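Memo to structure team: turn this sequence into structure tokens by end of day. - J.P.
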Amino acid sequence: ETVLNELLVMIMETGLSCSRKAPTERMDMKE
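Reply from structure team:
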């Protein structure tokens, strides 16, 4: 449970920082 929780937090932090840095860039990459 602890490992899963840590993983979730890491993923959330990474996603937040990514979308924070350049949300438009990520959108362009998807297309």
